[in-house]
Amino acid sequence: MEDYTKYRLKGKDELVSLLEGRDHLFIISCNKCFKEFKTAEEPERGELEALAAENGKTVTGSAGVDFLCNKTQTEKKLQDMIPEGTENILVAACGLGIQTVADLAGLPVYAAGDSLNYRGFHGMALTERKCDACAQCYLNITGGICPIVDCSKSLVNGQCGGARDGKCEVDSSKDCAWEKIYRRLEKQGRLEEFLSQPVQLRDYSKVNFKFVNDYVKSIRENRLEGYYGGVHPSERKERTEHLALQRFPEPAEVVIPLSMHAGAPANPTVQVGDTVKVGQKIGEAAAFISSNIHSSVSGTVTAIENRKHATRGECLSVVIRSDGKNTLDESVKPRGDLDSLTPEEIVEIVQEAGIVGMGGAGFPTSVKLKPAKPVDTILLNGCECEPLLTADHRVLLEFADDVIFGLQAIIKAVNAEKGVIVIEDNKPDAIALMREKTAGYSNMEVVEAKTKYPQGAEKMLIRRVTGRKVPSGGLPADVGCIVSNISTTKAIADAIRKGMPLVERVVTVTGERLKHPGNFLVKIGTNTRELIDYCGGVSGEGEVLFKAGGPMMGFDLSDLNVPIMKGSNGIIAIDTDHTAEQPCIKCGRCADVCPMELSPLYFAKFADEQNWQGMKEKNVMDCIECRCCEYICSSKIPLVAKIKAGKTAVRGMK
Length: 654
What we know:
The chain is α/β, with parallel strands linked by helices. The chain has a six-stranded mixed β-sheet, with helices on both faces. Strands 3-2-4-5 form a four-stranded parallel β-sheet, with helices on both faces. Strand 4, helix 4 (95-105) and strand 5 (109-111) form a beta-alpha-beta unit. Helix 3 (71-78) crosses helix 4 and helix 12 (400-414) packs across helix 15 (486-497). Mean pLDDT is 89; it is low at 1-5 and 118-126. [4Fe-4S] cluster 2 binds at residues 594, 623, 626, 629. Its cofactor is [4Fe-4S] cluster.
């Protein structure tokens, strides 16, 4: 492929002239983008260091930075990068990177590179800065502020005289570019240098990239809404969002895994031949991080053996033949009024009921309700940002009172100050209903969040609503928050009000290849194939991909003979993507969209090299496996699979 590198070093004579009268240099080079990703470092930095030494200059240090124009990440890197004693910064990058450093560094910044005006790519990075790639850069004259893109009239020799109170006469919402240039140069003591420059002439035959920059502006505003990064995949929820819940027919047999939660599998408490009832405990939590398991039907235990599992291959499971009577266990009875229950009793009820996170993670909820640090805010995740799925949407609409009761219980259990129900703006009916229902509660509010994936991830939701940032390796409680899924919260209400443990859940069965999609209330242990068959099977021709969950974070199902579990929020049937994987071109899109502010391209490179230490140093363990990087990757690299391999290797490192 032909590399698209965005910049090249200026000629030697021009660089020597640039160095005259300037010393104590710190050199920053961008590691380039849109190129074959073979090496992390580029040669320009070394060439500049050699040239500076040749001309008797002191270099205080140097650094190569990936995607220098990414202001969010570059700002963090610059904080401890530039040593004391530095007087000038020399930047080898395109105009975007140079402007970014000039905005952040607080020192005179000089361009050592020329932007290349390759059509169609330049200026696509996630940055507040823009560049016309005019190949006639003025940044060394104007203190790193581009008059071509910052000035509404693109004036290159000073202001027009029409500014009022420092604002542009063309666009009063903008600061006058030349006012900013003057103030920056004045602060850096460079006004005399600027005023001695000859009149600048612009060659208007050069390519203009205004249309690209306008596009970037709109993309940037969307991506930085609430939290860094994220993507906007096609939602495709219209097939089921309006469909009311149906109770799925009683299964003749259920296969209930003893491991459908984070942590240790439960230990069976029944034997083959035992008669069981709905809500009866059939598996005992085996550790602090574990969960009780209960029967979803009444009937007879016919086997306790390894059966197929959607994510673990096989798992010890309790097989029960239903008698069709749904006889309730004697333990299933209301647990009392919420006002009369202590926080400890609420947590005990949740633990006994086997309630876990029902958004897919399966973390035991009772453990969440025992935070090691004080919690002031409970966030209910009603975003359901995963495409296609509408299970939580229907729970909000059809079990609103239960959701509010469950939120009250969580608030009391952890002594929080308030509860916030967060719903994305693509669910206006749920927002309106929940606002109506919570109007009388002083400690509850409903937040309408702009739709963006993966907003439902705990750390993203906390950042979006509270502005707090969960530290690397930290938990929501570290910033005073607990996040609960909508269906999980409804299950808490069932456990207290009815005494019913977690034995059923709402499942969306949908996808463009499914004949009759729907939202169903399904008993845990029901066979997945039965749901697909009940919905009429698949339509159309060609290979079908079945997934448990949504298209972004769901798991491929090579065999439909697996049970519905506590975390099974959806089963989808979609077209298979056979796009072939290509080599990484280092476009930087994955770094732009990663909500954890990581660099996924390095995870792919290091995984191929089995450089597990490199993955550890790049903080692979912070990855939430949301697949934003994989979704945006033009080379179709299976990044998440490589990341999972890296995590496994890092966990095994001594």
